Amino acid sequence: MRTEDVLAAVATGLWRWDNASGTVSLDGEAARLLGLPAEPVVLPEVAVRSRFHPVDWNEINGIVNLAVAEGTLAEARLRIMDVDGRVLRTVRSRSKPLERWAADGSPDYELIGTIQEIAEPQPGTTAAHTPITGDWRRSREAFLLDAGRALAEARSTAEVLRVAASLSMPGFNPDGLAVFGVAGDRLSVIGHHGHDAGDEGPFTDMLLETDYPAAEVVRTGRAIYLSSPEDYKRRFPATWPLAQRFDRVSWAFLPLIVAGRTMGAWMAAFKQPASFSPDERSVLTTVARMLAQALQRAGVAESERELTTGLQRSMMPQLGPEIPGMRIAARYVPTGGGLQVGGDWYDMIPLPSGRFALVIGDVQGHDVRAAGLMGQLRIAVRAYASEGHRPDAVLSRASRFLAGLCASQESAAEEDPDARSPRFATCLYVECDPRTGTLEVARAGHPDPAVRMTDGTVLMRPTAGGLPLGIVPDTDYPTTRFTLEPGETMMLCTDGLIETGGHDLDTGWARLRAVLEADTHLGAGHEDGHLEALADLLVQAVHGPSSHHTTGPLADRREDDIAVVLLCREGGGCGCGTSAAHPARPVRRTMLTVAQAEPERIAGARRQVRELLHDWADEEQLDSVVLMVSEMVTNVLVHTDGDALLVAEAVGELGERRLRVEVADSSDELPHKRHPGEMASSGRGVLLMEMLADAWGVDPRGEGKSIWFELYEQSKRPDA
Predict the structure, then answer these.
(1) Which residues are CB-contacts of 94 (< 8 A; sequence separation ≥ 6)?
(2) Does residue 286 surpass a pLDDT of 60?
(3) HSE (CB half, 13 Å, CA atoms) of 605?
(4) Distance between CA 220 and CA 613 in Å, rounded?
């Protein structure tokens, strides 16, 4: 009896599907099952496809592609339709894809298999899930969507492995997972789940030639399914004892392939028998592909983070030895994108004089070139400072250095448009005497420092400045001198701390000021941690918490790097260092020099006074103070040839304070009372102080004089 007769007797037909020519050969039984005359026939692919339910056709495409990739049988259940769209019968198809080459040299395949009618389950009976079961398909698609989203969000290899271990596959769940990598000619275990610590020992550093399923998967790039212990023992007898002790009964080993390269293998082991139907293999294969992509992304991200961390560690200095009487804290936070490197930096430099210098700067840009220029500029500034140059000379030399460096790079990089673009840098250089607290500041286009006083008042300290470094090679940088009193804290920062989150300089400064003032008594009694905690608060106020689980309220607006340095002179009320007794309400004082050549700094003097008295009880009195200060400083610049030195001091408890403001100059000419007419443009300074101040006067000095006035908070003078 012929084979065809035997198959026809059991209602089984034969078919041959040539994918290259687009034709299908059917024997008589196969033609009958498809609703055609029961005789051998060769049909175009479209004629046979029209006989399948559209949903089942989409399903079988994936199954065939999976079988071609794995070299296994393609098995599916198909609904046969008549010309009116009614279901005639359900058949099971089993076929073997034979890979071959098309005429144009591209890979193709031919399916050779059988088709057999099967009975549909009757109502009230149970049946295993099939490719045409809607609930199974929907649950599988939902699972793959969730798995893909979770794997796409994983940022590290450890997170990828945690996601893989938590996947709950529809209909079957592996209880043991392992991810194998390749290191040279050896297999390595990247991670595992469902095993005890140390269980991975025998599988680590295994040669790829070993008779082990994962090694063979890496060698061939094809998946291996072992549905029973007997199957495992028969195919891999040498390594069966290694797997036997885990008491599992089914295993799936799938290749992790990225861009055509097998980067490892994924093992899913089951304590319950698994038949590995085409649907189950399809799910496992899809998960393996997503897992490979996620591991590849995580590896690239970890390499970038390692590069970034190493670059930052090499370029960002340590804050050096402890300085008696002072505490220092610093933070650097890169921008949110790319390699997370940029041009911001800070430094602490011991000087030959026994003093030290604090430097903070920002090279234009957030790329690798900005980071490289930053490293070179930081070294240059440190070298100039270590030679003993004054702050203005250090910045002048640094400006020439950066201008020359950018010019040389511009001429050398003809094919890189970015390298040809000029770069500049802002910088703030502070030379500090730790014994006296005297600070000498030189500024190159950088934000001014801020000082938190002993009672919590925060002032932006105006300083003289020049152009950013590198714009004009020969530039002068004037210096400003002031004293950091015991208990005061100075903050240096880059504009990223101020402007991050869409703020400008004014609104960003108001936000930071609120953090600094709210921190007046934070950490009292925690000597070393107070300044560190304040640095963290400042960064978190604009950047959000550092945990990757909480990205912070401004995560999508981290457009600039952040560098911040805090310098505290130990004293009462600062929250760190010594806790010597001090008045309940310390003296609040500020000092400012307005040079003849800088009349625009009169506006800064007015702002300083307003910030000093931001909590003054009477707003009208505050306006009077600002008016008198503006008049006194202007008179010095107009009627003398010297600079004006402003000193403002508030003493006493809130609501009962006494304000004293002095403006000193080098002229011996004393002011005198005049009676200007209505149209006069000057001559009202003394009259204003008589009308608005509680007390005023002029004190001659050895060289020059000092004009002063006093005001009492909420004064009851009838003429005030």
Answers:
(1) 73, 74, 75, 113, 114
(2) yes
(3) 28
(4) 78
What is the C-alpha separation between 698 and 258, in angstroms, rounded? 83
Cα separation, 642 vs 664, in Å, equals 10
Residue 547: other Cβ atoms inside 10 A = 8
> Cβ atoms within 10 A of the Cβ of 141, count?
11
Q: Are 357 and 385 spatial neighbours (Cβ–Cβ below 8 Å)? A: yes
Q: How many Cβ atoms are within 10 Å of 528's Cβ, its own excluded?
A: 13
pLDDT tens-digit readout, 291-318: 888 888 888 877 777 766 666 666 566 6
Share of the chain above pLDDT 70, in %: 80
The two tokens of residue 589 are 């004082």
Distances in whole angstroms, Cα of residue 66 to Cα of each of 72, 91, 223, 234, 397: 8, 20, 10, 24, 68
Of the listed ranges 48-52, 132-136, 228-232, 327-331, the one predicted with least confidence: 132-136
Question: How would residue 651 be classed by pLDDT, with cut points 50, 70 and 90?
Answer: confident
List, in sequence order, every beta strand (DSSP E) within 486-618. Answer: 489-493, 562-569, 588-594
Q: Are 51 and 26 in contact (CB under 8 A)?
A: no
- For every residue of 116-146, DSSP letters joined together read EEEPPPPTT------TT-HHHHHHHHHHHHH
CB 308 within 8 A of CB 339: yes
Q: pLDDT grade, residue 284 (50/70/90)?
A: confident
Distances (CA, A) of 220 to 209, 223, 242, 254, 638: 11, 9, 22, 11, 90
CA dihedral 326, 592, 597, 391 (to 10 degrees): 0
Q: CA neighbours within 13 Å on the CB side: how many for 153?
A: 10
According to DSSP, residue 323 is labeled: B
For the stretch 58-94, pLDDT in tens is 777 777 777 777 777 778 888 888 877 788 888 888 8
Beta bridge partners of 602: none
DSSP 445: B
pLDDT of residue 178: 87
Q: Tally the C-alpha atoms within 13 A of residue 54's C-alpha that lie toward its C-beta.
A: 1
- 719 or 15, greater pLDDT: 15
Neighbours of 73 (CB within 10 A): 13
What pLDDT band is residue 521 in, cutting at 50, 70 and 90?
Answer: very low
- Per-residue pLDDT averaged across 579-589, rounded? 58
Left, alpha or beta for 540 (phi > 0: left; psi -120 to 50: alpha)?
Answer: alpha
Please name which of 710, 639, 712, 702 lies closest in space to residue 669, comparing C-alpha atoms. 639
Phi-psi region of 466 (alpha: psi -120 to 50; beta: other; left: phi over 0): beta
In 3-state terms, the chain is what percent helix, strand and coil (to 5)? Answer: 35, 25, 40
* pLDDT score for 439: 93
Which neighbouring-strand residues pair with 75? 94
Q: What is the average per-residue pLDDT within 378-402?
A: 92
Report how far Cα 432 is from the mean position of its chain's Cα atoms: 34
Left if phi > 0, otherwise alpha if psi is -120 to 50, otherwise beta: which for 624? alpha
